[in-house]
Sequence to fold (636 residues):
Amino acid sequence: MASNREISSTEKLLNVIRGKAKTASDEEPSYKPVVPKKKAKPLATLTSTFQRPVTFGVDIGHQDLQMAKVEEVAADQWRLVDFRRVPFPSTTTRGTHEFTNFLKSEMGKFCGTGKGLQIWNLMSSSKVDVRFIKIPKVPRKQLENAIYWTAKRELAFEDMDTILDFEVQSDVVEQGIKKTSVMVYTVPRRDVESVLELFSDAGYQLSGLCIAPFAIQNLFRTKWMPTYGETLACLYLGRDGARIDIYSRGSLILTRDIKTGMNSMVESLVESYIDRKRPTTRDMRWSGAAAVDFTITPTQAHKLIMSLDPDSPALTADDTGHDLSEEEIFDMIRPALDRLVRQVERTFANLGGEKVHRVYISGVVNAYRPLIDYIGEQLGIESGVMDPLDPSVPFISGYTAPATTSEKVSLAAAVGLALSDNTRTPNLLFTYKEKEKMATVSRVNRVILISLAAVIITGLTVFAWQERIASTKKATISELNQKLSSLNLMVDTKLILQMAAKDREERRLKKEYGDRYFGMALISELSALTPENVRFLKVKSSFGRPEQKAAAPAKAAEKGAAPAKPAEAGVKALEIDGIVMGERNMLDGYLSSYVLKLKGSPLIKEATVQKSVIEALPQNKAEGEVLRFVLNLKLQ
Fold:
């Protein structure tokens, strides 16, 4: 039965994954990353705002703790700040409270206890299933679903128990069809929870979690270690097996576990050792001497193999096989190495024509040069060790590297972890869902910034335009002030009254002239507007007089009556009695056209047809029938 502590941590983690509002019965697949709850961050000080990014890589190995600290000094420029390799205490076992205290103590010395530290940890590669799939070329919006269902079919995982993530690599053409190459990987959710719980108990929050192939990939992608523009392979010799990782142009394109490792070498040495000693045992039995045990245990064989490493302690007289030379020991493990090489060759054959030019070897016995050279010779390629602390690396200049090759090689994963970043490193705690959310936020921020920039530019343009107009008006005012000053004209109330009186007099004279010559102007206008087929028989006018208009209000006031309205005091009107001659069916049209012309005149306010009838003129029968009309014109 699980403890209360395990249930509590699992429950908290599941709440973070699916949210408080979601349950296990939701239809949406649950493949969100495992991210521990974040506490509210305090306000950043001015000093911390301008600090350079620093990342810590923590690799918990089999026997020791490797840590590295890398600082990003500029774009694509890094500096190794510090590294440390601490062996586990002999009395400490992983998974115990003592081990958690050991981790907390050593990380406190190396990383400090500040908030918001960027800490990346290494997870066992055997717990992560990495596959390389190809999907049809689809639009970006459909890419996520295409990858998910393809991975679901090939990896057969459960959403609630597994974390899924992927990295789109490149476009390829397969049998004439465009496809997209994608690296997908899954990991049991409980394994991630256990790592998070370990660091949480130690008082630290992880920023990232990845596996060794991804950490080594950082060394190539950041150009910490050169790729020479070639396809490279990294062969890791572990205790229970080996792993081959292949990188093309700095990106992982294949990873495969191989059963042949240190255990196979131990088995090969045990068999060879017994075979070498068996004749001696037969001779002693024939001679009647007492039987001697010439067998060797796996532990003794392991120590014998490790003695090949020049950085390991030398054998003593009490160690089994101490009398064997390095060449003899190497000959005993050669069959296992040959099997390992054949499996690596089969892996290379599955690259589809991609040629591997160099192999880096790490793991056990990584400082024994004959073993490294033998593997390279059998593969027919150049071989070496994965040494991220080589003095030729420009990012570690001025820093003293460890003295032994084994120590430097063992720090490769820690340095790679310290070079991690979500933009280039697959992160089991920050999957593609979170990356898509961050990309969406970034797009929204860019739109907001562009909009604000457009508003600011528009505002500055309008401001500059208004400043230009203001400057022009200021120049005009200044010019007018100069002209005014040159006139020496003193403006006062008396002068303004005189000018107003003069203006009134000019208006009165203009009005008087207008009234005096209004009749002549009206006759001229009628002559111009009246066509030849329209003749006047009688014209009656009513213009009114100014004296009458002025006197009418006064007389009305004397009698006590209300004064007449201005319109009633003097209305200008004209009554025209005339005829329209022409064809019988066109007479009304002629009259209407004539009335419209009169209405368009500036001297006539309104024109109304009071009467229009067809008549025959007896005094002039030659004209025939005419249209007689009476027009009432209101004048301006």
In short: DSSP finds 18 helices and 17 strands in the chain. Confidence is low (pLDDT under 50) at residues 1-14, 16-50, 284-292, 547-551.
